[in-house]
Amino acid sequence: MSDSTSSSQVAAPPGGRLLAVAKRGAEHLLWGRVAVQRRIEARTRGARPVPTSVPPTGVLTDAATWRRATAEAKRLRLPLHRDLPKNWDALGAVAAVLDLVDDGTRSARIMDAGSARYSPVLPWLRLYGFGAAAGSLIGINLEFGSQVTRDGVVFRYGDVTDTGLPTGHLDAITCMSVIEHGVPLEGFIAESARLLRPGGVLAVSTDYDQDPPDTTGKVIYGSQVHIFSPQEIRDLVAMADRHDLELVGTLDDRALSHTERPVHWGRVDLDYTFILLTFRRR
User: Fold this and answer.
1) What phi and psi, each to the nearest 5 degrees, are found at residue 169?
2) DSSP letter, residue 35
3) Is residue 154 in some structural domain?
4) Coil, strand or helix at 68
5) 218 in any annotated domain
6) Cβ-count burial of 76 within 10 angstroms (0-12 exposed, 13-18 middle, 19+ buried)?
7) 177 vs 72, 183, 203, 276, CA distance in Å?
8) pLDDT at position 21, please?
9) Are 139 and 111 in contact (CB under 8 A)?
């Protein structure tokens, strides 16, 4: 989770200190597994198959769809996100990077915006061989304090609307379940477009519903819970287009519909779904 607040103070961990300790434990287990698994696979396996079950742009239509994505991630020997539906958008984002950005050398520079050190995108990219060059895989978040490196991946304090990175520095940006938490969309889109080289990719997921439930009075991470509507998604795609970020795929009325609400957020007792949007820099 991230937001746009620019401050020298590190944000308090969401959920309190006990939850922060639990997340830190999960983080160390995850990155320990990644480091060991990479070394074993380097000696015993050939090229890792690429994921194919999740398109670069689309809506999570039902529970069967995230179950298929989770099963594929498991077959690919990718450490699963504990919140199983989140494996769907993570797999789609990683697939988009592999399909649209990678030239076979695994040398792309990739940033996970609003990252968490225990979330799957950067570990999965590391298992696919990205991150061999120092600083080529980075995660930024306002919650991070001192810079931390995990198996070659750099995690540091950073604002997704003002990263301080050079123009055209990145080949790809992922941003998983972040923009619904009070992020100024124009600032985020403009900064992403500035950072990406021509042909670079931005993969964004967010909470979505074709008929969003009422979130009045439901506050998490310091802002009211927000679930994007179809019109808000259309507006976001149009905004991205104005910043030379072209949608990969199409989102007509049928594509924006879903048959189930397969995601349940117990802390706020809401049912909804996810949407994944992938853009290419013109």
Assistant:
1) -75, -25
2) H
3) yes
4) helix
5) yes
6) middle
7) 21, 11, 11, 9
8) 83
9) yes
Residue 206 lies inside a defined structural domain of this protein: yes
Q: How far apart are CA 114 and CA 156, in angstroms?
A: 10
| DSSP designation for 159 | B
Domain span including residue 219 = 16-281
CB atoms within 10 A of CB 64: 11
Looking up residue 218, the CATH number of its domain turns out to be: 3.40.50.150
Which two structure tokens, joined as six digits, stand for 81?
């996100």
In whole angstroms, what is the distance from residue 70 CA to residue 79 CA?
10
CA 229, CA 208: separation in Å to the nearest integer? 6
Quick one: CA torsion of 263, 258, 111, 91, rounded to 10 degrees?
80
Burial class (CB in 10 A: 0-12, 13-18, 19+), 169: middle
User: Residue 21: phi, psi to the nearest 5?
Assistant: -65, -40
Strand 223-224 relative to strand 219-220: parallel, antiparallel, unpaired?
antiparallel
Q: Which residues contact 218 (CB under 8 A, 6 or more apart)?
A: 224, 225, 268, 270
What pLDDT tens digit does each residue of the chain (282 aa) get? 433 333 334 444 555 677 778 888 899 999 999 999 999 999 887 788 999 999 999 999 999 999 999 999 999 999 999 999 999 999 999 999 999 999 999 999 999 999 999 999 999 999 999 999 999 999 999 999 999 999 999 999 999 999 999 999 999 999 999 999 999 999 999 999 999 999 999 999 999 999 999 999 999 988 999 999 999 999 999 999 999 999 999 999 999 999 999 999 999 999 999 999 999 999
* Token pair recorded at residue 32: 């320990």
**Total domain count for the chain?**
1
58: burial class by Cβ within 10 Å (0-12, 13-18, 19+)? Answer: buried
Structural domain includes residue 11: no
